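re the bet — no i am not wrong, look at it urself. input seq straight from the record:
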Amino acid sequence: MYLSVIIPAYNEEKNIQATLEDIFRYLKSKDIDHEIIVVTDGSKDETADIVSGLTNTIPTLRLIEEKVNHGKGYATKRGMLEAKGDLRIFTDADNATTMDNLERLLPYIEKGYDVVIGSIALKGKQIKEG
């Protein structure tokens, strides 16, 4: 498998479905062999139920449900350790950084960088709010 997308999620019932559908649509359109892993981190809302319900329409989706909140770092690490992709990325459940940004990261991976970090907290950033 080429790509694993890890999404730590805490109380994201309002965002998670649209985010997952957008990620899957993009990766499928690019014919990228992938898996999408959502790690719910002690959510008290319907996040896990929504993700679980989407596994029929998003066949590459997998849910890891933590019953206790351990924090975003823990959830991200758990997803990374469970992932099977040669390339592993994480993104936020609110889709603040859309999957098409992958195209901006891949040239650095192809040059041999082991880690590539994208951030909206950089000087010169471009944030589109919709």
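see?? The radius of gyration is 14 Å. told u. also The beta strands are 3-9, 34-41, 61-66, 87-90. so pay up
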